[in-house]
Amino acid sequence: MKRPIILHPDPRLKKLSDPVGDLSDALRTLADDMLETMYDAPGIGLAAPQVGLLHRLIVLDCVKVDDEKPRPTIMFNPEIIAASDEQNVYEEGCLSIPEQFADVTRPAEVQVRWIDRDGNEQEQGMDGLWATCVQHEIDHLDGKLFIDYLKPLKRQMITRKMVKFKRERAREKA
Length: 174
Prior knowledge:
CATH topology: Peptide Deformylase
Strand content: 25-35%
Number of domains: 1
Shape: globular
Helix content: 25-40%
Structural class: alpha+beta
Radius of gyration: 16 Å
């Protein structure tokens, strides 16, 4: 089931998410719903706070080549346990901040640990787009948005655009 994506500014996007305890069927269903929502958007990552739930859960799939098989990844309680000194700059966007993009500098490689859909602990090194995406999504779990990495003026400009965007969207629905 597709879920509505919360748009910035919204106080729920700035809150710390709670760790996931036991994996219930409801949490697995949420993860499946988030994948469906992410693919439909379309996006390459989505965090539970973006659908209004403060659980430490993210989904991602950074496969962008049409002939490559999708790699939907579900991560409960993801954490970065190591990061490279080498940095990468990617132009980032966010499903909660549509049509706004900016260059963000992050570690080029990260080692990530998480619990998978079946309750098993996983650990994997990621680089390139996958590293950027997983860091971006984990930031959501900590109440941080990609625009928080920007200079105040640029951040305020994007926030003002989003307020206007939300106002226009609300008028259209009324």
